[in-house]
Amino acid sequence: MEAATAAFRAEYRAGIGRGYNGWLHGLWILALGLGLGAWALSRGGGGLAVWLSLWTALLVSHFGEWWLHKNALHRRRAGLAMLWHRHTVQHHHYFTAAEMPIYAHRECRIVLFPPYAVLLLALIHAACAALWALPFGAAAGYGYFAGGLLHYLAYELFHFAAHLPDWPWLRRVPLINTVRRHHREHHRQEAMAHCNFNLTPPFADWCLGSCDRKQGLLATLFGGDPR
Ligand SMILES: [Zn+2]
Ligand SMILES: [Zn+2]
Q1: Domain extents for the chain?
Q2: What is the pLDDT at residue 79?
C-alpha cells in the first residue's frame, strides 16, 4: 500500500468513534430497508401496477445514482459540499484502484452511507411515491416506494461487495464481479470524474456513454472481472 494511502487510512480510522460497529451499521440499513420495503409491498398487494411501479422506481433511482455520483459526489455544489467531501476527498483517498479492499468491519464507516441516510432516503422515496400515487393510485405508490428502497439496498450491497477483499469466489458471482471491475476502474484518480458512475450494474453508464470500456450491453453487464 502506498504510504499516502496508508497514512490517510490510519488517520481516518483513528477518527471513527469507539462505539462504532460495522456489522450493526449494515444490519440497521438492511433491517430498515427490507422492513419498510416489505411493509409497502404488503400494503400495495401484488397487482401489476405495484410491480410496474417498483421497476419504474428502480430505473429512475438507477439513473439518479448515476447523476448524483457524477454531479454531486465528484463536483462540489453549494448545499451538497458534504457529499463531495465524504466521497471525493475521503472515500476516493481511502480506496485507490490498487488498494480497494476493507479489512475490518469498522471500515464499513467509509463504505456505507451514514446510518441516518436510510431514513432520509425513505422520506425522499415516500415523497416521490406520493406524487406517483396521484395519477396511478395508492397501490402504485407503495410499489414505487418499495422500488426506491430496493435500489438503495442494491446500491449498498454492490458497493460493499466492490470493496471486499479479492476472494476468488467473488469473481464467479454474476453482476457482482462486473461491478467490482467497473468500480475499481472508477477508483483510478484520473478516471473518477469521467467514467463508471454506476455502483449497481452499469446500465446507465452504458446508456449515457460513460463506461471505461465501449462494448455491447450484455458484455457491459455480464463481462465479469477478468484479469
Ligand atoms: Zn468505492
Ligand atoms: Zn466516485
Answers
A1: 3-222
A2: 86
